[in-house]
Specification:
The complex is a heterodimer. Chain A has 23 helices and 13 strands. Chain A is of the alpha/beta class. In chain A, helix 3 runs antiparallel to helix 4 and helix 9 packs antiparallel against helix 10. The radius of gyration of chain A is 34 Å and the shape is elongated. In chain B, strand 4 and strand 5 form a beta hairpin. Classes of the chains: A alpha/beta, B alpha/beta.
Chain lengths: 627, 319
């Protein structure tokens, strides 16, 4: 609640709206005890007194009634009716929406078609019809305004409820013996209330206006009772001769609706989780670079050489060191595996290479990435854009998310080619078919005009690979490309990647958490933990005899097929949070062999025989001995 | 030995493409009639690829979906398949995604109290004592009780999910991909915890996963599901070592294993059959290297092969 108020106050317009609205509310609450004239006493000899005349600060109306007093009492009434209508509409609408969304099926169909019918009428016509049926009067106007707004809430809340009703926690509640009514009240409602508040805060102003509109037409408050709409209606005939009688209530309506809307927008922004998580902030075209130290010189090792790469996320006053100094290189035709658990920095490393980490909050704070002698970190956007796809291409985990759902896969392939070189229609089509054949999509001529949703996950990922191949890159960075696939499909996709690198001399950086995949595909492997490489060497050596205790214990955690029923090794505890990395070895707290030296200073990634290990007391001997 | 859980011809058909009047235009058979027994204190593993019907089967077993045909017996008693609360005391479910199975607006204490209150009507002191007991057995600290789900890591949240399932005192747990959202180091912690709990509380597990190695490591017996049917069932140590059904062999050969060179086990690159338009006969026939004319004409049923294995194949593999 406190956090919400702080967030709200930070929005200046919302704050101004809130202050004005509180003042108005304070005034109308105090109205009965203020020394005001009776609003309904007529005095025709004193009619149309101007503003600031004696005894009537805002003048008098066509019957000589005190305008200030009528304004205060009228505002009081209008606000009360507007709020009441909003609450009634929200309660009814939410109840209808929740019931329709929760029960679904026929209940949903009948309720929502009824709501649709209500929405098919223009709102003012509907309100007029309701008032005409019930007879004029403020209470009937309230009913009309509330009824007209029920569909808005019902539709809104139904959509949210449908999403929540299929969540697993609702199933869990059902298994805990909760009845449907209880599930609605204790599981669904608390998750829907923020949406109701947001919808209400943005519609109250509208409802006050609608009530005023009905009163203006003489269907709301009846004389002599004053509300803002009826005051305007009565002043209409004197609009030219005595404009102040219309301006006074008109100004008040303007002030109320403006301030409520500003406040309402503020409430929505502060409550909406999507806005809170920064969905509206647009990331820059490349990652922000702010290198503190000197830029390392290329040593000419490999086609792509990463030296001391550091990428951080700056969120408010916290600094998350997602990548804390990574050195890697990959040769032409080589497959380098990067293995690690979630949060180890493997994906951020991959995205940093071509400046694809979202900024804000991402910042590359150090190191260099040399491609063929050229430093990519800090390269101008035009240069990076030119190289993305043509020199270094990416394959991502979820092909459904990376392919555009509304374009045929062939057109998307042609577009990928066109962004680097002009290509004719026929030639483009032929090239697209050729690419699909290269990734062994059966019946490529036909499938080239499929939409992504018409393909299975394995086929889509092949299109993802074809897209990466479109401009004959030298390096492919594959970020968990088979994690979302079934094992039989995974085997096919891995074979395709392996063939491609052998036939085309592609360098592949393969990011995964699966030792089996690494063993089958990669020549070398780098193991990452808490943003750093802890061990790097040839796949065969590392899998046979891991030296870093983390590598050894991680491998022991993974069950291997063919071992039968058994107890698994586990690593106790969790990796450290990357915004609070400990001094020394990040694995120290979970390591069985930890010594006091492990918690001091910086532990370097040193050569130990044929590989590099970041450990003071590395494992010796083969894997069998370690187990 | 008694049967903890017995399924007889349980199947599920979903209507698809409803017309305006609510009449279904077609139907998808997500689970073909399945007959299975789970022994007291046994872990039965269920493996299969996405879309094979394993989650639909699991949801029927806990009453979240009503089977189209067939009956479910727990401890020899047939269950009324419409009331989840009735299931709640006998059989519980551990969800795949630990975080989304906890209501984000409830504290862990509220989550834990729900089954105790609604299934057993315990009062506040009884509940407090019972929660302390359960939390102790899943190695969670009681101070976690007043926190909200988003404050937990995946592994901790999954332990809370297991604790909630234990709170209902059910003797059978359906574990639906309980570790596939977790990192490998945490995965091992949770699997070991499950093994300890099974011993401590004399539980029976139905363990569903797509990860062959994980299923093999925790199960006594394993059933392989393909396209809504059980194609092979047998002892965990045999099933992938000496597969009898060609599909089981394909699965076992596709799993990446350290030390085995990369081979494409299936040259044809076939996909699952279309559920709206299922093929006649054996669903695997189009992908099967051993398929013959009979396979696409008749549907094979499970039959005993050797002492412990049952296979639904006309031409099963020999050792």
């Amino acid at each position: 609640m406190r956090a919400f108020l702080v967030l709200l106050a930070r929005n200046r317009l919302a704050l101004a709206g809130g202050v004005v609205m509180s003042l108005v509310l304070l005034l109308v609450l105090l109205t009965p005890i203020l020394p005001l004239a009776d609003p309904d006493v007529t005095n025709t000899s004193n009619r149309f007194q101007p503003i600031f005349s004696d005894g009537a600060l805002l003048g008098t109306d066509h019957l000589g009634r005190d305008l200030l007093s009528r304004l205060m009492w009228g505002t009081r009434l209008s606000l009360a009716v507007g709020f009441a209508a909003a609450i009634v509409a929200a309660t009814l609408g939410a109840a209808i929406g929740i019931i329709a969304g929760f029960y679904g099926g026929r209940t949903d169909n009948i309720i929502m078609r009824g709501v649709d019918m209500l929405m098919a009428f223009p709102y003012i016509l509907l309100a007029l019809a309701i008032v005409a049926a019930l007879g004029p009067g403020l209470f009937n106007a309230l009913i009309a305004v509330a009824a007209v707004n029920v569909p808005f809430f019902a539709r809104n809340i139904r959509g949210i409820t449908v999403g929540i009703a299929h969540k697993e926690f609702v199933d869990a509640a059902r298994l805990a013996g909760l009845s449907n009514t209880r599930i609605i009240l204790s599981e669904i409602l608390p998750n829907v209330i923020p949406v109701i508040v947001i919808a209400m805060s943005t519609t109250i102003g509208w409802m006050i206006l609608e009530t005023a509109g009905l009163s203006f037409l003489g269907l709301g408050s009846q004389p002599p009772q004053a509300d803002l709409g009826s005051m305007l209606g009565e002043a209409r005939s004197a609009l030219i001769t005595n404009p102040h009688t219309s301006i006074v209530p008109g100004m008040m309506i303007l002030i109320i609706v403006m301030s409520i809307n500003l406040l309402g927008d503020g409430v929505r922004d502060a409550l909406d989780p999507r806005l809170k998580s920064g969905a509206l902030s647009r990331p820059m075209a490349t990652t922000k670079v702010d290198r503190k130290g000197a830029v390392p010189e290329p040593t000419g090792k490999g086609l792509l050489e990463v030296q001391g790469l550091e990428t951080q996320f700056h969120v408010k006053d916290r600094v998350y060191r997602a990548v804390g100094g990574v050195d890697l290189h990959v040769e032409k035709g080589e497959c380098l595996g990067i293995i690690g658990e979630s949060g180890s920095g493997k994906s951020v490393t991959a995205l940093s290479l071509m400046g694809l980490v979202a900024s804000p909050p991402g910042v590359i704070t150090g190191g260099a990435v040399h491609y063929d002698g050229e430093d990519l970190i800090g390269a101008p956007y035009r240069r990076l854009r030119d190289m993305r796809g043509r020199n270094v291409a990416y394959i991502f985990q979820d092909p459904l998310a990376t392919l555009h759902p509304l374009y045929r896969v062939g057109d998307q392939l042609i577009e990928a080619i066109r962004s680097h070189r002009p290509i004719g229609k026929a030639e483009g089509q032929a090239k697209a078919v050729e690419l699909l054949r290269a990734v062994r999509i059966p019946n490529a001529e036909k499938r080239v005009s499929d939409y992504p949703h018409e393909m299975s996950g394995g086929m889509r990922q092949r299109v993802g690979i074809a897209m990466a191949l479109a401009n004959d890159p030298d390096i492919i960075i594959a970020d968990e490309p088979t994690t979302a696939l079934d094992v039989t499909v995974q085997a096919q996709v891995l074979t395709i990647l392996d063939d491609l690198r052998r036939s085309r001399g592609l360098a592949i950086v393969f990011i995964t958490h699966d030792f089996g995949v690494v063993a089958q595909l990669c020549d070398r492997v780098a193991v990452m933990y808490a943003g750093r490489v802890v061990e790097e060497g040839s796949t065969k050596d590392i899998l046979q005899a891991p030296r870093h205790p983390y590598t050894a214990r991680l491998m022991a955690c993974v069950p291997e097929l063919g071992g039968g029923k058994r107890r698994l090794e586990a690593i106790t505890g969790l990796p450290p949070a990357v915004d609070r990395l400990p001094e020394g070895c990040a694995f120290a707290d979970r390591c069985l062999k930890v010594q006091t030296e492990c918690r001091r200073g910086k532990i370097p990634l040193d050569w130990q025989g044929d590989r590099k290990v970041r450990c003071l007391y590395p494992e010796q001997g083969t894997r069998e001995a370690a187990e | 030995m008694t049967h903890a859980l017995r399924l007889m011809d349980v199947s599920k058909t979903f209507p698809v493409g409803r017309s305006l009047l609510g009449r279904a235009k077609g139907s998808v058979k997500a689970v073909h009639p399945v007959t299975l027994d789970v022994q007291q204190n046994e872990t039965l593993g269920i493996v299969g690829e996405s879309g094979c019907g394993k989650s639909t089967l699991a949801r029927m077993l806990v009453g979240l979906l009503e089977p189209t045909t067939g009956t479910i017996e727990i401890d020899g008693e047939a269950l009324d398949t419409a009331d989840p609360a009735l299931f709640g005391r006998k059989i519980q479910y551990v969800f795949q995604d630990p975080i989304s199975s906890l209501n984000p607006r409830k504290t862990i204490r509220q989550v834990m109290e729900a089954p105790l209150k609604h299934l057993y009507g315990m009062d506040a002191t009884e509940r407090q004592a019972r929660i302390a007991e359960i939390f102790d057995s899943v190695n969670l600290r009681e101070e976690f009780l007043d926190r909200y789900p988003h404050e937990f890591s995946g592994g901790q949240a999954q332990r809370i999910g297991i604790a909630r399932a234990l709170a209902a005192k059910a003797r059978i747990l359906i574990l639906d991909e309980p570790v596939s959202a977790l990192d490998v180091s945490v995965q091992a912690q949770v699997l070991n915890l499950l093994a300890d709990l099974k011993r401590e509380f004399d539980l029976t597990y139905l363990f569903i996963s797509h990860d062959l190695a994980v299923v093999e490591a925790v199960s006594d017996r394993i059933a392989v599901l393909y396209f809504g049917s059980v194609v092979e069932i047998g002892r965990a140590e045999d099933i992938f070592a000496t597969p009898r059904h060609p599909y089981t062999r394909l699965l076992a050969q596709s799993a990446p294993v350290v030390g085995r060179p990369l081979t494409e086990p299936e040259a044809k690159g076939m996909e699952l059959p279309d559920p709206l338009n299922p093929p006649p006969g054996c669903a695997f026939a189009a992908r099967c290297p051993r398929a013959q004319a009979r396979c696409s004409a008749e549907t094979p049923h499970l039959s005993r092969q050797g002492e412990t294995t049952e296979v639904a194949c006309f031409f099963p593999l020999d050792e």
